[in-house]
Structure formats: C-alpha cells, structure tokens
C-alpha cells in the first residue's frame, strides 16, 4: 500500500480536518455535482489532495504539498508531464514544442528549481535585428558593453530610445513584483508610446521581441506583463537547459514520490459523491470511468479552456479575448551551413514577412542536435489556419533566403512544424494577475491564467493554490 492509498486520517488529526466540512456544505449549491450515477461505480480510491494537470502549475502545487507531507495524487491527461513545456526527441534533435526561453531571473523558479542540474546554456544578451536588408546587433550594455557602444550608432532606435531603455530598466527594478503585477495598466504599445519610444524602435525591436514573447504582434498585452518580463530580463539570463525546455518540468516531477503521478489519466468531471455520508471534499472521474476521492480538496491545474469545461459556471475568457497562438518550424543543416556560431536571437524588424524570430538552437546548446548538425528554429505569431505546412515551409525558406542567402538556406531540411493553438491566455487589459485560487467547495484553481502567462506565473499559481487549501483546512496559518 502506498502513502497515497492510506487514509489521510492516518496522518492528520480529524480535528484539523473538520473546519472544511462546514465550508464545504456552505458552498455546495454553487458547485453542482455532475450526473455521477450514470456511470458504473468503481472502487473509489482515496487521496489527500487530487491535483489535475501536470504542467508547471500542477507540478508546483504537488511540490508544495509534498514539502508539507500532504499526500496527493497528480492526474495528467497526456503521456508525459510538462503541459505546454515539453521537448520531443526527433532524429537526434531536441525539439521544444514551440520556441521557449527560460529566464533565470524568474523569482519563483529560483526558489523551486536546481539551475545547475538543468545545465543552462545562455543566449547572447541582446538580439540581431533584420532591418532594411541588413542585420544590426542590439546589446545589453551591462553584459556586452563594447557591443552596445557600437550599437549606439545603428538604426535600431535613436540615442534617446537607448536612454529610455536604461530608464525603463531602473523604473522596473525599483518596484516589487507585486507592485508591478497590480499596478495601473495600459497595453504595452500604449506604455511604450507614453514613455516616449520612437515608432522606429517600437517597430523594429519591441514589436518582434515582446511580440514574440507574448505571441502578440499588436503589443496589446498588459503593461504589467511587459514590466515583469523586462525586470526578469534585467535580473537574469535567457537560457535553454541542455536537455531541452522539458527538462524543467521533469526536474520537478523527479522529486515527487514514486507513483504520485498518473499519466494518460484525463479527468472528465469534478463532483461531490453524495452517496458518501462524510464526503466533505470533491471526487474526480477519469475518462475511463475510474473515480478518485479527495480528502482535503482538488486543485484544478489545467489550461484555461479546459478549466472552463471542468468547472461549471466558470467563465471562459478565451472566448471573449481569443487565445495567443504560434507556429514553430524546425530545420536541420550541416553545422557549416549556418551563418554564425554565436547564440543570438534573430528578430524580424523589417515590418514585412511572416517570420517573427529565429535562432540556431545548436549555437545556444550544442546538445540540441547531433555533433555535425545544426538545428534552426523559426517562429511565427498566430496559427496561419488555412495555410498548409508545406506552403508555410516554402514561404519561410523564401524569406530566410533573403536574410542569409539562397545557397545556404537551400541546403536546410525541414524537420517538423508545431502549430500551437493555445500558447498563452490573452493578457490584454483589463487583467487580474493575482486571481483568487479558491473556486469553492474544496476546489482550487491554478495555472498561468490566474497569474502571469509565464513559467514563473504558473509556478506561483501552484503555490498559491496549495497555500489557500492548507489555510482553509486549518493545516497552516495564512
Ligand atoms: C510555444 C510556447 C512558448 C512559450 N514561451 C514561454 C517562454 O519563453 N517563457 C515563459 O515564461 N513562458 C512561456 N510560455 C508560457 C508557459 O509555457 C505557460 O505559461 C506555462 O507553461 C503554463 O503552465 P500551466 O501549468 O499553467 O499549464 P499547462 O502547461 O497547459 O498544463 C496544463 C496541464 O493540464 C493537463 N490537462 C488538461 N486537461 C486535463 C484533464 N481534463 N485531466 C487531466 N489533465 C489535464 C494538460 O495535459 C497539461 O499537461 C510559452 C508557451 C508556449 C506554448
């Protein structure tokens, strides 16, 4: 018998469990049971807390429960942990499911992750912008002083723009994360204009750079997120783990007790089993009919559209705002057939074409490909529905031939295309990046739709859901 299958009452005095029972009955009307009787009743298994979804939010929740010695079961619909943060191995290459960067300055990540075990490889601090048919390097003066002196004269922004970048850095560093995430908000584009940035630097640098982070070319995303990311970029490096971005959730999962994660276990309903007289917490039913009963509560850590399906009555902001989407195309090349060896991010500052950003992943982390091969990663913003993969590939090759020359790009071989319909929830104003994780009746919610749509936001949301649950169950003081 594993820890999970023992009743929680073996671990926690029943007096500590009782306050929740009153709360539960109070809220139950709001949380209507789904028709559980229409299914044959298998033997329900008991777990302290049930966490649904093993993305970063669910894994963070499980990590915090584990650190408090609270038994839990983590149920994941897919065949691996990570959610949106996964890496596939294809023909000896590591393909992250979409272009993702891990910023070491993320504050919650610093508390939860072992950076040295991730073997993080740094990007160049800055970017190379394709503008007017030429490349121009934009550098972080604190990390690449001489490069940044040279870049003072380039056409990517005026001297005033460069001074404004420095003052923006000072402004965001002077604020706490809480202040930033709850500050008065406008869209990023309005903030940049209000701060006095020129149209030229907005178009050639901010639009492809932050547009690529938010999957939002218009820069409608809240200024809160802009400030938060700007601050994290100032405090840390852009990196990739040697084993792919999926190494981040895998590190969290590896620290959890054996058998505490069930993969291929899609939850179809969260409900109260009224046939159990002392039922104070919800149960969950899997697609295959299996039932798990929680004793302390259920944490729903699924992406926003799925949360709306599992939690009746929860509004569906995705429908109102539309999700952020991206397409990522991978190509392989001989290592001699790429134009540079440095780990720099290329941005399309030309205002034309479909490529937003690209980079040579094997220049950042050589482990992303076999020793003699280079991996090229190209990102587009949006889904390009109605355009076939073949047509997208041809267009990308045509466009990048204009950047690097047709003889070189013509040798690249298309490897795989990822179309990611739901990359991030839409975070244009109005936003609430510190949403209450309490759904009611022993049900808690976490995920990047409660905080900032970042790795860090997802990790924070998992912790907050556990803190709320433990506080409601009188297991800790809030
Ligand atoms: C292409 C791309 C690039 C990104 N780049 C960055 C970046 O560079 N930096 C950054 O900070 N952030 C980035 N993000 C955002 C970041 O990945 C997300 O904000 C974060 O990973 C969300 O984690 P989550 O746990 O909230 O949700 P998810 O990762 O979506 O996890 C939800 C989990 O729930 C599971 N699930 C869903 N329904 C059920 C069910 N019914 N039963 C059981 N399980 C279920 C899913 O399978 C999934 O594993 C990027 C996202 C994408 C897609």
From TrEMBL:
Record InterPro entries: Amino_oxidase, FAD/NAD-bd_sf
Domain Amine oxidase: 56-470
Basic residues bias (residue ranges): 24-33
Coiled coil spans: none
Alphabetical list of Gene3D superfamilies matching this protein: FAD/NAD(P)-binding domain, Protoporphyrinogen oxidase, mitochondrial, domain 2
Gene Ontology MF terms in the entry: oxidoreductase activity
Annotated segments matching region Disordered: 19-42
PANTHER family: AMINE OXIDASE
Name used for this protein in its record: Amine oxidase domain-containing protein
UniProt source species: Juglans regia
